[in-house]
Amino acid sequence: MLQRLLPERGFYLGLMFQEAAARHGRVRVTLDRPLDVAPDAGTDLGYTELADLVDDLAARLWSAGVRPSEHVAILKGDNVDIVLLTCAVSRIGAVPALLSPSLDGQVAAVLLDRLHAPWLITDRASLESTLSTVDTTLARGVLTVDEAPGNTIALAALAGVARRPAVRLHPREPSLITHSSGTTGIPKLAVHCPHTMWNRLVPQQALGRATRGEAAALHMSFVHSRFYHLLGVLLHFGSPLLLLVDPDPAHAGPLLAAHRPGIVETHPNTYVLWEDLADAPNGPLSNVRAYGSTFDAIHPRTVRRLLSASRRRDPRLMQLYGQSETGPIAFGWYTRRGADRVEARRVGTGIPGFTRIRVVDERGRTCPPGATGAIEARTRGRILTYLGAPESYARQVDRGWWRMGDMGYRDRWGALYLLDREVDQISTVDSTLEVEDELLSRFADLREVIIVHGPGREPVPVVCTRGNEPLDPDSWRRATEDLPALAEPVQCRFEDLPRTATWKIKRLEIARQLAAGELPTLSTAPVGG
C-alpha cells in the first residue's frame, strides 16, 4: 500500500548524461575509437561534452520527425555512439529499440517487423551487409550516421537545428526495447519502462557505493540493458570512464595500463581472453579494486587469475545473475583469500527488498534445500512484456514468479547454485557447466570448452585452445578419467563458434551444426586430446 501512495520513480536514459554533467562537470571519458556520429570530436571527452552531444542528437532526431512514444530501431556498427543515440532517442520521449550489430539479416528482418514500421538509425556498412536483404522502405524513415545511398537522411545534414526540452514519459510507459540473447532461437524483444529500470538501478547503486569515484573500464554490449544500468551507477558517482569496443589484449592492454582502472567489467568470455593480461608488463589490471561479471557463468580459473593480477589490498569480483527480462536477481562476490575455494556454480543470494528466488519441481512445488529444480524469481525489475510475442511472456509467469529457464538448487542458507540451462541438460551429466569449469581448471591452455549433445545425444566437448594449439591426447585422457563419460573432443577456433552480442556461446546452434556436419573444426577427424 505504501508503494502505491508514494510517487513512482523512473530511470530516464535521456537525462543521464545531463544530470552527471551537472553533478560532476568535466570528468573524462576515454574511447578507443572516434564516434561515428562525431568523428572530429576525438577520443577524449568529458561528461559535459557528451551531455551536449546527446542534446544535439536529440534535436536532430526531432527535426527529422521522430516523436514521443515512436519506436526507433538502432542497428549500426559497434561503437559507443550507440549509447549516445539511445540516450538521444530517449531524451525526446521516443523508444529506442537496440538491435545487435551481430544479428544476421533474417533475424533483423523479423525483429524490425515486430517493431511495426519503426524509425531506423543505421550506417552505410550495415545497409550493405546485415540490412542488404531487408526491405527498409517499411521503416517510417531511415537515418544514417554517415553518408549512405538510397532514401536516407544523414544526421550530419541536420546539424545546428534548435535544441528541444527533454520529454519525460510516465514511469510505466515503454521507454526502452532490448532483445534477448537468442541462444535458443529468434531473440525476443523485451520492453522496459522507467519504473522497472529504476528498480534495477537502485540496488546496483547500493552495491557500487563502495567503489564510488573509481576510474572504470568497460567492454560490454552497448545493446544490452545491463550496460545502461552500470553506466547509470558510474555516472552518478562521477567515475572517469574508459569505454572499449575492441577487446583484443594487444589493443586493450596498453589502454588499461595507461588508465589503471579501479573498476573493470566485461563479458565472462572476454575475461578468459584477458587472463593473458594478468602478468602483462605495466600491470594493466594491477589497480583493479572490483571486477564485475554478468551475462554468463565465469570460470574459477579466470576468477583466480584476475584477482591475482590486482595489487590492491582486497580486490573483489562481483557476480550478478539474471537476464534481460529481470535484471540482476542474485549477487555474490569472490575475494583473493577465497579464490582457491571458488564455487563457480554458486551465483549468490537474492537482493533484499528487490528480488526473491525459489527453486521448484515439475509440479511447481518449492524444492527442499539441495534438491535440483527450475529456478524462478520474483522481482520489481521485470520487463513489461515481449513485443510481438505476449504469449511467450505469459508462459514464463506464474502468479508473479518468472521462469528463468535454468536448473539449480538452493542450499540451507538460501544461496543459489546454477547447474544448467533447461534446454541444455544432458541425461548422463549432472551439470555440464560444472564439468566445463573442471576441464578449464585442469588445462591452462584451454580458451573455451562447451559440452553439447552429439548426433546420438552423447555429450561432446567442443574445445578451443589458446593459439589453436592441438590438445595432447594422453593429457586429455588422464584429465577426464574421473569425469562423466564424454565423447572424443572436437577442436574449433573460438572465432568460429556462434555467439551472441555478449559473447555467450549458442550451444543449440553448435549442436545443430555438429549434427549437420557444418561446424568448422581444426581437423577432419575428431581431435583425440
UniProtKB/TrEMBL annotation:
It holds the Pfam family AMP-binding. Residues 17-386 form the AMP-dependent synthetase/ligase domain. It comes from the Bacteria. Transmembrane segments: none annotated. This is AMP-binding protein.
